[in-house]
Amino acid sequence: MAKQTIGLCELCGRQDVLRTEHHLTPKEEGGTWLPTAFLCIPCHKQVHALYSNHELAVRLNTLDALRHDEKLVSYIKWIRKQPASKLVKTKKSRQRRKK
Q: How far is CA 1 from CA 4, 21, 57, 67, in A?
């Protein structure tokens, strides 16, 4: 199980949130020993709902790339306004559901 801590989400910037370690290059794509980031649970779920592990490894393997991707920009803007305690539902993108 992934290690969870309370702190700053490195993607949305919210403070005092329950967060988990996200492998910027997924482990199944060779990222076991590569850089990681701590993301709040909603951001982590949203990232994996929107993108395949292959897409994360090839195109979105940095925090900067994730922050500026068109699918996440509006989500990040929205989640920043949510309290740390809010439970957020995550839906897979239509493109991910087809696969």
A: 9, 10, 21, 25
